[in-house]
Specification:
With 151 residues, this protein is an alpha+beta fold. Helices cover 47% and strands 20% of the residues.
């Protein structure tokens, strides 16, 4: 997703575990690129230490997700690749819901601030507020952290 800042856009890529709704990896930057996706994937891989062939990576069809570098990274780890149908945001509803919550609950009330400050706010939301305070009906009213601890 993208968030407006004083200097322009701040782009955010987030990798979500659909079972717990936890954000297991993310990256942000001033340029929307495949490198941002790779940084988020590396972050998620380091955090989760998964078995690649047991994973499904779902994204939209943005050029940054279809890049040779991202495809090689996923294929090299035997991750199954899934992409939304062209122009159908509902195929990626969980990610879209997360980004909508981030914007509604956190970034929109801040207004247009410096990119570095917005980055700090997003880090706090993803690392602290969302996993520890944000309850989800799909998780039985638990936060992602509480649900993961009980799983």
């Amino acid at each position: 997703t993208q968030i407006r800042c004083k200097e322009g856009w701040l782009y955010l890529v987030a990798v979500m575990d659909l079972g717990t709704r936890q954000i297991v990896g993310y990256a942000q930057g001033a340029v929307n690129s495949s490198q941002l996706v790779l940084n988020a994937l590396e972050s998620a891989w380091k955090y989760s230490q998964p078995v690649g062939k047991e994973l499904l990576f779902h994204s939209d069809q943005g050029t940054q997700y279809r890049s040779e570098e991202v495809m090689a990274w996923l294929n090299g780890r035997e991750v199954t690749i899934s992409m939304s149908r062209r122009g159908n945001c509902w195929d990626n509803a969980c990610a879209e819901s997360f980004f909508a919550l981030l914007k509604k609950e956190w970034t929109k009330p801040l207004g247009t601030i410096e990119r570095s400050d917005m980055g700090d706010e997003i880090r706090y939301y993803i690392d602290e507020f969302y996993p520890k305070m944000r309850r989800h009906m799909t998780l039985g009213g638990l936060t992602p952290s509480a649900y993961a601890a009980n799983s």
